[in-house]
Fold this protein.
Amino acid sequence: MRLLTTVMDQSLDEGYAAAARARGEVGKRRLPTTTRGRLLLALGLALAAVVVTVSGVTAHDDEPALARQHDALVQKVTAGTAAADKLQQQVEAARTQVDQEQRRALKESGGDLALTDLAAAVGTGAVHGPGLKLVLDDATGTDSGGGIDPRTADDFSGGRLHDHDLQLIVNGLWESGAEAVAVNGQRLTSLSAIRAAGDAILVDNRPLVPPYTVLAVGDEKRLPGAFQDSSGGQYLRILEESYGIKSTATAQRSLDLPAAVGFTLRLATPDSGTPSAAGSTIAPSPSTTGAAKQ
Amino acid sequence: MIAVLGLVAGIVVGLFVQPSVPASVVPYLPIAVVAALDAVFGGVRAMLDGIFDDKVFVVSFLSNVVVAALIVFLGDQLGVGSQLSTGVVVVLGIRIFSNAAAIRRHVFRA
């Protein structure tokens, strides 16, 4: 308190009172009368004005600079994403070529139709067929943009679909006879992971944005019913009733599921033997079981 | 008259000459502004009190700016720069407020 009182009481520089006392003229002189005094006052005011305006100008100039930095960063991110997409396309093209070559080589060496089936089963080949389309979305009222403030998000984050929920639902689909499953265009393989980063669900490390479209290829007549009865279907019903998760399941006559991306060979190595022998040694088992998504 | 000219000249210089502020000085600019405002308000109050003195005005302005910047600089070197600049702003801010109140009493008699 004493500190505050002192500051409040001695708000005026004591030098003024001292100077006035020294002159012995209190309450008379309002403005300097001599030219020197006026010049000094003008100098002081000019200095103060310079400081204030320079500060204002600096702060004003910093604003567009900050915006420019932000824009530059956004541009960098966009360019980086575009470059990554382009590389991914190149990978896809190369993979298609490899597939074609593989098929041709197999056909020359007697043919192996089992490879196509196997590729469809493990997810390295695109599949087409009837099945079930499941659209899941967070309950109304939850911020679907992922821009939720972690400080306001309390322990009850009801209404938001989590990675664990999606895992159980997808497992329910497998359980009820689905032959191939894709979530938001991400094909699931035997090595796919459904995980979470913050509030976002990641499938194979790619963030998904709600609503989540789960496509499952399987028997269109049997699959919906089987899913309803599976543990995943029951779990989904609980989610709907208790947490307001929205889901619509529709049987589809024809679904197109893409091939899984980002497969790498881990164990298989090209045979150094003759080309025809190499064709037959590209056995599906090591190349598919050893495939991994990084 | 000369005083007003000085004020206008200062604003013009600040606006149009666009002096490039060195990056090392930028952190002390806000403190300098508060110190400058404090000196100006103190000067106006002293004028209304009838004890204005031009030398005291200029010297107090310069020394306020220098001391405030010095305190913050010292704080920066010791790792408490932001706390010390808060302290400087609080003290000078209170002074500005009470000086403004004194000016108000003079002007409006209330």
Helices of chain B lie at 2-17, 29-49, 54-78, 81-108.
